Amino acid sequence: MSVIPKESIEVISQTLGIPNLSPDVALAVAPDLEYRIREIMQESIKCMRHSMRTFLTAEDVDSALALRNLEPIYGFASKDNLRFKRAPGHNDLFYIDDRDVDIKDLVEEPLPKAPLDTSITSHWLAIEGVQPAIPENAPTEATPEIRKTEYKEDGLPVDVKLPVKHIITTELQLYYEKIIELILNKPGSIPFRRALVTLATDSGLHPLVPYFTRFVADEVARNLHNLNNLFASMRLVRSLLQNPHIHIELYLHQLMPPIITCIVAKRLGNRLSDNHWELRDFSANLVALICKRFGHMYHNLQPRVTRTFLHTFLDPTKALPQHYGAIKGIAALGSRMVRLLIIPNLEPYLHLLVPEMQLEKQKNEIKRQEAWQVYGALLCAVGQNMHEKVKGISSLLSPPTRAASNGNGKAMIAMPGVTGVVVPMNSMSVDNMQGSTSGFSPMMGAPSSVGRQLPKENSPILAQAWKDDIDAGQLLPPVFELFGESLLSFIPKPEASIFL
Description:
The chain is mainly alpha-helical and 500 residues long. It has helices at 6-15, 23-50, 58-67, 103-108, 144-149, 170-185, 190-201, 209-222, 227-242, 252-264, 276-294, 301-314, 320-332, 335-342, 346-357, 365-396, 460-483, 493-496; strands at 84-86, 94-96, 403-405, 411-414, 422-424. The strands form 2 sheets. A 3-stranded antiparallel beta sheet has the order 3-4-5, with no helix packed on it. It has a two-stranded antiparallel sheet with strand order 1-2. A hairpin with a 7-residue loop joins β1 and β2.
């Protein structure tokens, strides 16, 4: 049963243009209407309490409706308490007592100012002792107008107290100028290497961090043709990241764009002999270091970086050096990113890359060298992924301790630490592991898989080892078809014996 009578539902339906509402429908709608009203009133009471008030206003109801994404109630914008009067002859009928207003007086009144919604904004009063120059903060220097107009009523001037201004000592200024001079003029000298050591260990350099980050951003944007300065700037960033006394995370928004630029820029350096490949590798490792250290603080940091690398890698209009940087960036983020982003797109990408590596189809020697560099980056990324995969299997599944023959010509191995489990050496599948069977492709020269069911008392470590064995066995043959025997150099011989 609902407190709201069905007659009220019928009246509301008539105002909405539904004159003939069924009584059964009105009885069904009344409890739902009561529930919605109670819900809105509960939210209104919460808004009232958060406003530190003890009486409910129309604004509280509007706030509750806004929280529910509903349209506010129009005509009840007064902040005063609404005066309800009881209708004569009706005990349960109330109306709002509004005073009569003369239209002439209402028209002649000046228009009020447009009301502004109450909102809360935040800004930095100071960042590590430095007050940012934004409109919300007071000016750091008093203007002549302020000095002239600041007077008391008796005519005596008032001393204007300015906010504290961050002052860098003369020693820090000289240190900063010396570092900048070494980057611009002597990026490969011994004094610059010693300066990098101080940048990574000195505990009093935090006031200079915003100046260094600004310099790196401007230098990368201005001197993409100067490879030595770019490399020196990235080494400067690495030293700042290694300094445990610096809160470098406050300036990542300034550092990430120049680092990403040094990875996926179309051209770095001014000469063909410039080794920009090494700069891209170095910068990719910087991005991986930043994501590892500060990924838990900025949850969208690694997804945004990964999205940038993936879009560059899959864009055929990008230059080959850009593809190289994207591959190195993804590989630096870990083997999981390689397995999810590079390996699924490996075959169509190599279909477009291989013609660029052949002399018959690509006459430009520079383009061929760039294609071979990209091929090498792909090979290293996939090979290291397979190396980690096989290493993971060897950590779960230790090498066999002894081998014996079962009389039918098949060698049997005994697993250490597992009682009563004997597995054929040429077996590549387990029937009770998700019902999957897998084996090496015949091109690998591996024997066909022979299924063998493990006992029910097998250990979880052995089950995980066999599962990883199956996954790696499914991944290795298609990758081997694309790269050939070059991939085998990444798989150590002891671990390779697991598959053979």
